[in-house]
Write a sequence for this structure.
Protein backbone atom coordinates (compact mmCIF):
# COMPACT_ATOMS: atom_id res chain seq x y z
CA UNK A 1 0.00 0.00 0.00
CA UNK A 2 1.21 3.49 -0.75
CA UNK A 3 1.24 5.92 2.17
CA UNK A 4 -0.48 9.26 1.87
CA UNK A 5 2.75 11.23 1.66
CA UNK A 6 4.32 8.97 -0.96
CA UNK A 7 1.14 9.06 -2.96
CA UNK A 8 1.14 12.83 -2.82
CA UNK A 9 4.78 12.86 -3.90
CA UNK A 10 3.99 10.73 -6.89
CA UNK A 11 1.03 12.88 -7.84
CA UNK A 12 3.23 15.99 -7.63
CA UNK A 13 5.79 14.45 -9.95
CA UNK A 14 3.00 13.32 -12.25
CA UNK A 15 1.68 16.86 -12.30
CA UNK A 16 5.11 18.25 -13.15
CA UNK A 17 5.52 15.75 -15.94
CA UNK A 18 2.06 16.58 -17.22
CA UNK A 19 2.93 20.28 -17.21
CA UNK A 20 6.03 19.57 -19.29
CA UNK A 21 4.13 17.44 -21.79
CA UNK A 22 3.82 19.45 -25.04
CA UNK A 23 0.29 18.06 -25.53
CA UNK A 24 -0.87 19.60 -22.25
CA UNK A 25 -1.03 23.20 -23.39
CA UNK A 26 -4.41 23.51 -21.63
CA UNK A 27 -2.89 22.58 -18.27
CA UNK A 28 -0.08 25.12 -18.52
CA UNK A 29 -2.60 27.76 -19.55
CA UNK A 30 -4.90 26.86 -16.65
CA UNK A 31 -2.08 27.08 -14.14
CA UNK A 32 -0.80 30.33 -15.55
CA UNK A 33 -4.24 31.96 -15.48
CA UNK A 34 -4.83 30.68 -11.96
CA UNK A 35 -1.51 31.96 -10.64
CA UNK A 36 -1.73 35.34 -12.38
CA UNK A 37 -5.33 35.87 -11.34
CA UNK A 38 -4.28 35.22 -7.74
CA UNK A 39 -2.79 38.73 -7.75
CA UNK A 40 -6.24 40.30 -8.15
CA UNK A 41 -7.93 37.71 -5.93
CA UNK A 42 -5.57 38.36 -3.03
CA UNK A 43 -5.78 42.15 -3.20
CA UNK A 44 -9.53 42.42 -3.73
CA UNK A 45 -10.24 39.54 -1.34
CA UNK A 46 -8.40 41.44 1.39
CA UNK A 47 -10.51 44.56 0.82
CA UNK A 48 -13.68 42.44 0.80
CA UNK A 49 -12.83 40.70 4.07
CA UNK A 50 -11.79 43.85 5.91
CA UNK A 51 -14.69 45.94 4.61
CA UNK A 52 -17.01 42.97 5.35
CA UNK A 53 -18.74 42.93 1.99
CA UNK A 54 -18.37 39.28 0.96
CA UNK A 55 -22.16 39.07 0.53
CA UNK A 56 -21.90 41.84 -2.07
CA UNK A 57 -19.36 39.73 -3.97
CA UNK A 58 -21.87 36.86 -3.77
CA UNK A 59 -24.64 38.98 -5.24
CA UNK A 60 -22.38 40.25 -8.03
CA UNK A 61 -21.32 36.72 -8.92
CA UNK A 62 -24.92 35.55 -9.23
CA UNK A 63 -25.73 38.56 -11.41
CA UNK A 64 -22.90 37.41 -13.64
CA UNK A 65 -25.07 34.40 -14.50
CA UNK A 66 -27.75 36.77 -15.77
CA UNK A 67 -25.12 38.46 -17.92
CA UNK A 68 -23.90 35.15 -19.30
CA UNK A 69 -27.49 34.19 -20.16
CA UNK A 70 -28.04 37.56 -21.86
CA UNK A 71 -24.77 37.12 -23.78
CA UNK A 72 -25.79 33.69 -25.04
CA UNK A 73 -29.24 34.99 -25.97
CA UNK A 74 -27.87 37.94 -27.93
CA UNK A 75 -25.33 35.76 -29.70
CA UNK A 76 -27.48 32.79 -30.69
CA UNK A 77 -31.02 34.17 -30.74
CA UNK A 78 -30.54 37.76 -31.82
CA UNK A 79 -27.53 36.89 -33.94
CA UNK A 80 -24.94 39.34 -32.60
CA UNK A 81 -22.05 37.01 -33.24
CA UNK A 82 -19.46 39.45 -31.92
CA UNK A 83 -20.86 39.04 -28.42
CA UNK A 84 -19.26 36.52 -26.10
CA UNK A 85 -21.05 35.34 -22.94
CA UNK A 86 -18.12 36.80 -20.96
CA UNK A 87 -18.96 40.28 -22.32
CA UNK A 88 -22.43 39.87 -20.84
CA UNK A 89 -20.84 38.65 -17.60
CA UNK A 90 -18.62 41.74 -17.40
CA UNK A 91 -21.48 44.15 -18.10
CA UNK A 92 -23.80 42.48 -15.59
CA UNK A 93 -21.12 42.43 -12.88
CA UNK A 94 -20.31 46.12 -13.28
CA UNK A 95 -23.99 47.06 -13.40
CA UNK A 96 -24.68 45.07 -10.23
CA UNK A 97 -21.70 46.71 -8.50
CA UNK A 98 -22.89 50.22 -9.35
CA UNK A 99 -26.49 49.49 -8.29
CA UNK A 100 -25.41 48.00 -4.96
CA UNK A 101 -22.97 50.86 -4.40
CA UNK A 102 -25.59 53.54 -5.02
CA UNK A 103 -28.17 51.77 -2.86
CA UNK A 104 -25.78 51.37 0.06
CA UNK A 105 -24.64 54.98 -0.20
CA UNK A 106 -28.02 56.61 -0.56
CA UNK A 107 -30.53 54.19 1.03
CA UNK A 108 -28.57 52.59 3.80
CA UNK A 109 -31.32 50.60 5.53
CA UNK A 110 -32.48 48.58 2.54
CA UNK A 111 -29.05 47.52 1.35
CA UNK A 112 -29.36 43.85 2.30
CA UNK A 113 -32.82 43.54 0.74
CA UNK A 114 -31.55 44.91 -2.56
CA UNK A 115 -28.52 42.64 -2.45
CA UNK A 116 -30.70 39.58 -1.81
CA UNK A 117 -33.05 40.59 -4.63
CA UNK A 118 -30.22 41.15 -7.12
CA UNK A 119 -28.71 37.80 -6.12
CA UNK A 120 -31.86 35.84 -7.01
CA UNK A 121 -33.05 37.98 -9.92
CA UNK A 122 -29.63 37.76 -11.61
CA UNK A 123 -29.74 34.00 -11.40
CA UNK A 124 -33.36 33.81 -12.60
CA UNK A 125 -32.69 36.16 -15.53
CA UNK A 126 -29.80 33.97 -16.64
CA UNK A 127 -31.91 30.81 -16.60
CA UNK A 128 -34.77 32.48 -18.49
CA UNK A 129 -32.41 33.87 -21.16
CA UNK A 130 -31.02 30.39 -21.66
CA UNK A 131 -34.57 28.95 -21.90
CA UNK A 132 -35.24 31.39 -24.71
CA UNK A 133 -32.00 30.58 -26.54
CA UNK A 134 -31.96 27.61 -28.88
CA UNK A 135 -29.21 25.01 -28.45
CA UNK A 136 -27.53 23.27 -25.55
CA UNK A 137 -25.07 25.02 -23.24
CA UNK A 138 -22.81 23.52 -20.64
CA UNK A 139 -24.07 25.51 -17.68
CA UNK A 140 -22.01 23.50 -15.21
CA UNK A 141 -18.79 25.11 -16.43
CA UNK A 142 -20.19 28.55 -15.56
CA UNK A 143 -21.72 27.47 -12.26
CA UNK A 144 -18.85 25.39 -10.96
CA UNK A 145 -15.96 26.61 -13.09
CA UNK A 146 -13.72 24.69 -15.44
CA UNK A 147 -10.23 26.04 -15.43
CA UNK A 148 -9.28 23.51 -18.09
CA UNK A 149 -11.56 25.20 -20.64
CA UNK A 150 -9.57 28.42 -20.33
CA UNK A 151 -8.34 29.90 -23.61
CA UNK A 152 -5.53 32.21 -24.66
CA UNK A 153 -7.93 35.17 -24.73
CA UNK A 154 -8.64 34.56 -21.03
CA UNK A 155 -4.96 34.90 -20.36
CA UNK A 156 -5.04 38.38 -21.90
CA UNK A 157 -8.09 39.26 -19.86
CA UNK A 158 -6.30 38.19 -16.67
CA UNK A 159 -3.24 40.26 -17.51
CA UNK A 160 -5.27 43.38 -18.24
CA UNK A 161 -7.34 42.97 -15.09
CA UNK A 162 -4.26 42.35 -12.96
CA UNK A 163 -2.77 45.52 -14.36
CA UNK A 164 -5.88 47.57 -13.51
CA UNK A 165 -6.35 46.10 -10.02
CA UNK A 166 -2.71 46.27 -8.95
CA UNK A 167 -2.23 49.82 -10.26
CA UNK A 168 -5.34 51.20 -8.57
CA UNK A 169 -4.83 49.23 -5.37
CA UNK A 170 -1.26 50.47 -5.00
CA UNK A 171 -1.93 54.05 -6.07
CA UNK A 172 -4.99 54.50 -3.86
CA UNK A 173 -3.78 52.23 -1.07
CA UNK A 174 -3.94 54.79 1.74
CA UNK A 175 -7.27 56.18 0.62
CA UNK A 176 -8.87 52.75 0.26
CA UNK A 177 -7.42 51.80 3.66
CA UNK A 178 -9.10 54.88 5.15
CA UNK A 179 -12.40 54.16 3.41
CA UNK A 180 -12.38 50.52 4.60
CA UNK A 181 -11.23 51.19 8.17
CA UNK A 182 -13.29 54.30 8.98
CA UNK A 183 -15.26 55.70 6.06
CA UNK A 184 -16.85 58.46 8.14
CA UNK A 185 -13.48 59.81 9.19
CA UNK A 186 -12.17 59.54 5.62
CA UNK A 187 -15.16 61.59 4.48
CA UNK A 188 -14.37 64.24 7.11
CA UNK A 189 -10.84 64.48 5.69
CA UNK A 190 -12.33 65.48 2.36
CA UNK A 191 -12.06 62.06 0.70
CA UNK A 192 -14.78 61.37 -1.88
CA UNK A 193 -15.91 58.25 -0.05
CA UNK A 194 -18.82 57.45 -2.37
CA UNK A 195 -16.85 57.24 -5.63
CA UNK A 196 -14.09 55.27 -3.91
CA UNK A 197 -16.60 52.78 -2.53
CA UNK A 198 -18.10 52.31 -5.99
CA UNK A 199 -14.59 51.96 -7.43
CA UNK A 200 -13.92 49.21 -4.91
CA UNK A 201 -17.15 47.45 -5.86
CA UNK A 202 -16.32 47.74 -9.59
CA UNK A 203 -12.89 46.22 -8.99
CA UNK A 204 -14.67 43.48 -7.07
CA UNK A 205 -16.96 42.97 -10.06
CA UNK A 206 -14.02 42.61 -12.46
CA UNK A 207 -12.36 40.14 -10.12
CA UNK A 208 -15.57 38.16 -9.77
CA UNK A 209 -15.81 37.78 -13.54
CA UNK A 210 -12.30 36.30 -13.61
CA UNK A 211 -13.10 34.04 -10.70
CA UNK A 212 -16.13 32.70 -12.52
CA UNK A 213 -13.73 31.25 -15.11
CA UNK A 214 -11.65 29.59 -12.43
CA UNK A 215 -14.04 28.32 -9.76
CA UNK A 216 -17.52 29.14 -11.09
CA UNK A 217 -20.34 31.40 -9.93
CA UNK A 218 -21.37 29.33 -6.93
CA UNK A 219 -17.91 29.20 -5.38
CA UNK A 220 -16.67 32.72 -6.13
CA UNK A 221 -17.22 33.97 -2.59
CA UNK A 222 -15.19 31.13 -1.11
CA UNK A 223 -12.21 31.82 -3.34
CA UNK A 224 -12.35 35.55 -2.67
CA UNK A 225 -12.64 35.20 1.08
CA UNK A 226 -10.74 32.05 2.09
CA UNK A 227 -7.19 33.05 1.05
CA UNK A 228 -7.66 36.51 2.59
CA UNK A 229 -9.20 35.00 5.72
CA UNK A 230 -6.22 32.67 6.15
CA UNK A 231 -3.88 35.62 5.55
CA UNK A 232 -5.82 37.70 8.07
CA UNK A 233 -4.85 35.24 10.78
CA UNK A 234 -1.20 36.25 10.41
CA UNK A 235 -1.16 39.79 9.03
CA UNK A 236 -0.73 42.96 11.07
CA UNK A 237 -1.11 45.42 8.23
CA UNK A 238 -3.42 45.55 5.26
CA UNK A 239 -0.67 45.18 2.65
CA UNK A 240 0.88 42.25 4.54
CA UNK A 241 -2.52 40.63 4.35
CA UNK A 242 -2.72 41.26 0.60
CA UNK A 243 0.66 39.72 -0.10
CA UNK A 244 -0.08 36.71 2.08
CA UNK A 245 -3.52 36.33 0.47
CA UNK A 246 -1.92 36.35 -3.00
CA UNK A 247 0.53 33.69 -1.84
CA UNK A 248 -2.20 31.49 -0.35
CA UNK A 249 -4.35 31.93 -3.42
CA UNK A 250 -1.50 30.78 -5.65
CA UNK A 251 -0.78 27.84 -3.36
CA UNK A 252 -4.44 26.76 -3.30
CA UNK A 253 -4.69 27.02 -7.09
CA UNK A 254 -1.50 25.05 -7.59
CA UNK A 255 -2.39 22.34 -5.07
CA UNK A 256 -6.01 22.15 -6.19
CA UNK A 257 -5.07 21.82 -9.86
CA UNK A 258 -2.45 19.18 -9.26
CA UNK A 259 -4.78 17.11 -7.08
CA UNK A 260 -7.66 17.47 -9.51
CA UNK A 261 -5.40 16.44 -12.40
CA UNK A 262 -3.95 13.43 -10.60
CA UNK A 263 -7.28 12.08 -9.39
CA UNK A 264 -9.45 13.14 -12.29
CA UNK A 265 -11.57 15.51 -10.18
CA UNK A 266 -13.22 18.82 -11.13
CA UNK A 267 -10.71 21.64 -10.71
CA UNK A 268 -12.96 24.33 -9.13
CA UNK A 269 -14.31 22.26 -6.22
CA UNK A 270 -10.86 20.78 -5.55
CA UNK A 271 -9.31 24.24 -5.24
CA UNK A 272 -12.10 25.30 -2.89
CA UNK A 273 -11.72 22.19 -0.74
CA UNK A 274 -7.99 22.78 -0.40
CA UNK A 275 -8.66 26.41 0.59
CA UNK A 276 -11.42 25.47 3.03
CA UNK A 277 -9.35 22.72 4.66
CA UNK A 278 -6.38 25.09 5.08
CA UNK A 279 -8.58 27.76 6.64
CA UNK A 280 -9.98 25.22 9.11
CA UNK A 281 -6.51 23.94 10.00
CA UNK A 282 -5.18 27.47 10.52
CA UNK A 283 -8.12 28.40 12.73
CA UNK A 284 -7.66 25.26 14.85
CA UNK A 285 -3.89 25.70 14.91
CA UNK A 286 -4.20 29.31 16.09
CA UNK A 287 -6.63 28.38 18.87
CA UNK A 288 -4.35 25.86 20.61
CA UNK A 289 -1.30 28.05 21.34
CA UNK A 290 -3.64 30.87 22.34
CA UNK A 291 -5.10 28.77 25.14
CA UNK A 292 -1.64 27.91 26.39
CA UNK A 293 -0.68 31.57 26.48
CA UNK A 294 -3.75 32.43 28.49
CA UNK A 295 -2.72 29.97 31.22
CA UNK B 1 -10.42 85.50 22.66
CA UNK B 2 -11.52 86.59 19.24
CA UNK B 3 -14.92 88.17 18.84
CA UNK B 4 -15.99 85.62 16.23
CA UNK B 5 -17.35 82.49 17.97
CA UNK B 6 -15.99 79.12 16.82
CA UNK B 7 -19.50 77.73 16.59
CA UNK B 8 -22.67 79.67 15.96
CA UNK B 9 -26.05 77.99 15.56
CA UNK B 10 -29.16 80.03 14.79
CA UNK B 11 -32.75 78.75 15.01
CA UNK B 12 -31.76 75.22 14.10
CA UNK B 13 -34.33 72.48 13.69
CA UNK B 14 -33.42 68.97 12.67
CA UNK B 15 -35.43 65.80 12.13
CA UNK B 16 -34.62 62.44 10.56
CA UNK B 17 -38.27 62.00 9.52
CA UNK B 18 -41.18 64.04 10.83
CA UNK B 19 -40.33 64.07 14.55
CA UNK B 20 -37.85 66.84 15.36
CA UNK B 21 -34.72 65.61 17.13
CA UNK B 22 -33.48 69.12 17.75
CA UNK B 23 -35.69 72.19 17.78
CA UNK B 24 -35.07 75.94 18.05
CA UNK B 25 -31.41 75.54 18.83
CA UNK B 26 -29.39 78.70 19.40
CA UNK B 27 -25.81 78.22 20.48
CA UNK B 28 -22.56 80.13 20.56
CA UNK B 29 -19.25 78.54 21.48
CA UNK B 30 -16.38 80.96 21.93
CA UNK B 31 -12.84 80.31 20.79
CA UNK B 32 -10.78 78.48 23.41
CA UNK B 33 -13.84 76.95 25.01
CA UNK B 34 -13.79 73.53 26.67
CA UNK B 35 -17.38 72.37 26.71
CA UNK B 36 -19.17 69.11 27.20
CA UNK B 37 -22.38 68.04 25.55
CA UNK B 38 -24.61 66.11 27.94
CA UNK B 39 -28.16 64.84 27.86
CA UNK B 40 -30.20 61.66 27.91
CA UNK B 41 -29.84 58.94 25.31
CA UNK B 42 -31.77 59.86 22.22
CA UNK B 43 -31.62 63.49 23.26
CA UNK B 44 -29.77 64.51 20.11
CA UNK B 45 -26.13 64.71 21.27
CA UNK B 46 -24.76 62.64 18.40
CA UNK B 47 -27.09 64.41 15.98
CA UNK B 48 -25.70 67.77 17.10
CA UNK B 49 -22.15 66.51 16.63
CA UNK B 50 -22.94 65.26 13.13
CA UNK B 51 -24.57 68.57 12.24
CA UNK B 52 -21.43 70.40 13.39
CA UNK B 53 -19.35 68.12 11.16
CA UNK B 54 -21.66 68.65 8.21
CA UNK B 55 -22.52 64.95 8.04
CA UNK B 56 -26.17 65.97 8.47
CA UNK B 57 -27.88 69.04 7.11
CA UNK B 58 -30.29 71.14 9.20
CA UNK B 59 -33.93 71.21 8.18
CA UNK B 60 -34.20 74.86 9.25
CA UNK B 61 -31.70 77.33 10.61
CA UNK B 62 -28.05 77.99 10.13
CA UNK B 63 -24.80 76.56 11.44
CA UNK B 64 -21.45 78.28 11.22
CA UNK B 65 -18.25 76.55 12.28
CA UNK B 66 -14.99 78.53 12.36
CA UNK B 67 -16.63 81.22 10.31
CA UNK B 68 -17.85 79.08 7.43
CA UNK B 69 -20.19 76.18 6.65
CA UNK B 70 -19.59 72.88 8.50
CA UNK B 71 -18.62 71.16 5.22
CA UNK B 72 -15.90 73.71 4.55
CA UNK B 73 -14.77 73.90 8.15
CA UNK B 74 -14.48 70.16 8.68
CA UNK B 75 -10.89 70.05 7.43
CA UNK B 76 -9.96 72.30 10.38
CA UNK B 77 -11.87 70.14 12.83
CA UNK B 78 -10.36 67.07 14.48
CA UNK B 79 -13.02 64.44 15.11
CA UNK B 80 -12.67 61.47 17.44
CA UNK B 81 -15.34 58.76 17.13
CA UNK B 82 -15.88 56.05 19.71
CA UNK B 83 -13.37 53.26 19.19
CA UNK B 84 -16.19 50.72 19.54
CA UNK B 85 -17.52 51.94 16.17
CA UNK B 86 -14.41 50.57 14.44
CA UNK B 87 -13.72 46.99 13.38
CA UNK B 88 -11.59 45.55 16.24
CA UNK B 89 -10.02 42.95 13.92
CA UNK B 90 -8.88 45.26 11.15
CA UNK B 91 -5.22 44.60 10.23
CA UNK B 92 -3.72 48.02 10.87
CA UNK B 93 -0.90 49.37 13.01
CA UNK B 94 -1.23 52.27 15.43
CA UNK B 95 0.91 54.45 13.15
CA UNK B 96 -1.33 53.66 10.16
CA UNK B 97 -4.38 54.74 12.16
CA UNK B 98 -2.81 58.05 13.20
CA UNK B 99 -1.62 58.71 9.64
CA UNK B 100 -5.24 58.63 8.47
CA UNK B 101 -5.43 62.10 9.99
CA UNK B 102 -3.24 63.22 7.08
CA UNK B 103 -5.49 61.64 4.45
CA UNK B 104 -7.08 63.70 1.72
CA UNK B 105 -4.21 66.14 1.27
CA UNK B 106 -2.92 64.53 -1.92
CA UNK B 107 -5.06 62.89 -4.64
CA UNK B 108 -3.65 59.39 -4.42
CA UNK B 109 -3.37 59.53 -0.65
CA UNK B 110 0.43 59.16 -0.42
CA UNK B 111 2.00 60.38 2.83
CA UNK B 112 5.03 62.65 2.95
CA UNK B 113 7.87 62.66 5.45
CA UNK B 114 6.25 65.62 7.15
CA UNK B 115 3.00 63.64 7.49
CA UNK B 116 4.87 60.83 9.23
CA UNK B 117 6.66 63.27 11.50
CA UNK B 118 3.39 64.97 12.48
CA UNK B 119 1.83 61.57 13.16
CA UNK B 120 4.75 60.62 15.43
CA UNK B 121 4.45 63.89 17.30
CA UNK B 122 0.70 63.46 17.76
CA UNK B 123 1.27 59.96 19.10
CA UNK B 124 3.89 61.29 21.54
CA UNK B 125 1.46 63.94 22.68
CA UNK B 126 -1.00 61.27 23.88
CA UNK B 127 1.97 59.39 25.42
CA UNK B 128 1.70 56.37 23.13
CA UNK B 129 4.84 56.83 21.02
CA UNK B 130 6.07 53.37 21.98
CA UNK B 131 3.00 51.67 20.46
CA UNK B 132 3.51 53.03 16.91
CA UNK B 133 4.33 49.66 15.36
CA UNK B 134 1.84 47.62 17.37
CA UNK B 135 -1.39 46.33 15.83
CA UNK B 136 -4.26 48.63 16.75
CA UNK B 137 -6.29 45.57 17.78
CA UNK B 138 -3.84 44.78 20.62
CA UNK B 139 -4.43 48.05 22.48
CA UNK B 140 -6.79 48.49 25.42
CA UNK B 141 -9.93 50.57 25.05
CA UNK B 142 -8.31 53.60 26.70
CA UNK B 143 -5.23 53.36 24.51
CA UNK B 144 -7.36 53.06 21.37
CA UNK B 145 -9.28 56.15 22.38
CA UNK B 146 -6.00 58.06 22.84
CA UNK B 147 -4.76 56.86 19.44
CA UNK B 148 -7.95 58.25 17.92
CA UNK B 149 -7.28 61.56 19.68
CA UNK B 150 -3.79 61.50 18.16
CA UNK B 151 -5.36 60.90 14.76
CA UNK B 152 -7.62 63.91 15.30
CA UNK B 153 -4.59 66.01 16.36
CA UNK B 154 -2.76 64.88 13.25
CA UNK B 155 -5.36 66.79 11.19
CA UNK B 156 -3.79 69.99 12.54
CA UNK B 157 -7.17 71.13 13.86
CA UNK B 158 -8.39 74.40 15.32
CA UNK B 159 -11.14 72.58 17.16
CA UNK B 160 -11.57 69.07 18.58
CA UNK B 161 -14.89 67.23 18.61
CA UNK B 162 -14.79 64.11 20.78
CA UNK B 163 -17.59 61.54 20.93
CA UNK B 164 -17.62 60.00 24.41
CA UNK B 165 -13.90 59.81 25.10
CA UNK B 166 -14.58 58.32 28.53
CA UNK B 167 -16.89 55.50 27.49
CA UNK B 168 -15.64 52.14 28.84
CA UNK B 169 -12.47 53.57 30.34
CA UNK B 170 -10.95 52.87 33.78
CA UNK B 171 -10.84 55.79 36.24
CA UNK B 172 -7.01 56.04 36.30
CA UNK B 173 -6.87 56.02 32.50
CA UNK B 174 -9.47 58.75 32.59
CA UNK B 175 -7.08 60.90 34.64
CA UNK B 176 -4.43 60.63 31.93
CA UNK B 177 -6.93 61.49 29.25
CA UNK B 178 -8.16 64.45 31.23
CA UNK B 179 -4.67 65.85 31.64
CA UNK B 180 -4.00 65.46 27.91
CA UNK B 181 -7.21 67.27 27.00
CA UNK B 182 -6.53 70.09 29.45
CA UNK B 183 -3.12 70.61 27.88
CA UNK B 184 -4.63 70.60 24.40
CA UNK B 185 -7.27 73.13 25.39
CA UNK B 186 -4.54 75.75 25.72
CA UNK B 187 -4.29 75.85 21.95
CA UNK B 188 -7.68 74.70 20.66
CA UNK B 189 -11.39 74.67 21.33
CA UNK B 190 -12.65 71.32 22.61
CA UNK B 191 -16.18 69.96 22.56
CA UNK B 192 -16.85 66.53 23.95
CA UNK B 193 -19.91 64.37 24.38
CA UNK B 194 -19.99 62.71 27.76
CA UNK B 195 -22.16 60.55 29.94
CA UNK B 196 -19.78 60.89 32.79
CA UNK B 197 -20.50 63.94 34.92
CA UNK B 198 -17.62 63.32 37.34
CA UNK B 199 -15.18 63.66 34.47
CA UNK B 200 -16.97 66.62 33.04
CA UNK B 201 -17.44 68.79 36.12
CA UNK B 202 -13.75 68.86 37.03
CA UNK B 203 -12.28 69.95 33.73
CA UNK B 204 -14.74 71.57 31.42
CA UNK B 205 -15.54 75.24 31.37
CA UNK B 206 -19.14 74.88 30.37
CA UNK B 207 -21.87 72.33 29.74
CA UNK B 208 -24.19 72.08 26.78
CA UNK B 209 -27.36 70.16 27.67
CA UNK B 210 -29.12 68.55 24.74
CA UNK B 211 -32.57 67.06 24.98
CA UNK B 212 -35.56 66.65 22.76
CA UNK B 213 -38.76 68.35 23.80
CA UNK B 214 -40.38 66.37 26.57
CA UNK B 215 -43.76 65.98 25.05
CA UNK B 216 -42.42 64.15 22.01
CA UNK B 217 -40.72 61.35 23.90
CA UNK B 218 -42.12 60.73 27.39
CA UNK B 219 -39.17 58.56 28.57
CA UNK B 220 -36.75 61.41 28.07
CA UNK B 221 -38.59 63.35 30.75
CA UNK B 222 -37.66 60.61 33.22
CA UNK B 223 -34.06 60.71 32.08
CA UNK B 224 -34.08 64.45 32.36
CA UNK B 225 -35.25 64.41 35.96
CA UNK B 226 -32.64 61.81 36.82
CA UNK B 227 -29.85 63.81 35.27
CA UNK B 228 -31.00 66.90 37.09
CA UNK B 229 -30.78 65.02 40.40
CA UNK B 230 -27.30 63.79 39.61
CA UNK B 231 -25.96 67.16 38.51
CA UNK B 232 -27.43 69.13 41.42
CA UNK B 233 -29.48 72.26 41.47
CA UNK B 234 -26.97 74.53 39.77
CA UNK B 235 -27.44 72.59 36.52
CA UNK B 236 -30.53 73.31 34.60
CA UNK B 237 -32.28 70.69 32.57
CA UNK B 238 -33.56 72.00 29.31
CA UNK B 239 -36.13 70.87 26.87
CA UNK B 240 -34.52 72.43 23.88
CA UNK B 241 -30.87 72.79 23.20
CA UNK B 242 -29.38 75.23 25.58
CA UNK B 243 -26.19 76.36 27.25
CA UNK B 244 -26.57 75.70 30.97
CA UNK B 245 -24.24 78.44 32.05
CA UNK B 246 -23.77 81.61 30.08
CA UNK B 247 -20.43 82.34 31.71
CA UNK B 248 -19.46 78.73 31.43
CA UNK B 249 -17.59 77.89 34.62
CA UNK B 250 -18.20 74.73 36.60
CA UNK B 251 -15.20 74.08 38.73
CA UNK B 252 -15.51 72.10 41.96
Amino acid sequence: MITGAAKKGISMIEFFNALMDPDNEFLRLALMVGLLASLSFGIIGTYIITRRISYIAGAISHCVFGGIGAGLYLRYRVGWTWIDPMHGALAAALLAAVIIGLVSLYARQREDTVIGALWAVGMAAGLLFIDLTPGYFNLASYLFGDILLISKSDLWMVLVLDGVVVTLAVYFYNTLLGVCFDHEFARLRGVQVGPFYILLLCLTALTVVLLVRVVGIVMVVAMLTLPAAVAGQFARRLWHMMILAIFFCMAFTWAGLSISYSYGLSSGPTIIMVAGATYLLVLVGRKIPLRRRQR
Amino acid sequence: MSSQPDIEIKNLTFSYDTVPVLEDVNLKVAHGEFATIVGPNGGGKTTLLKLLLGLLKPVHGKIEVLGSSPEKARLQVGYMPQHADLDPQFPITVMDVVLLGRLGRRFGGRYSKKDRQLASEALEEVQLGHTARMPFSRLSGGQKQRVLIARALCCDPEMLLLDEPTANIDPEVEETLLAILQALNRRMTILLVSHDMGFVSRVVKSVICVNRRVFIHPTSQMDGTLIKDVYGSDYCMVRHDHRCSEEGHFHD
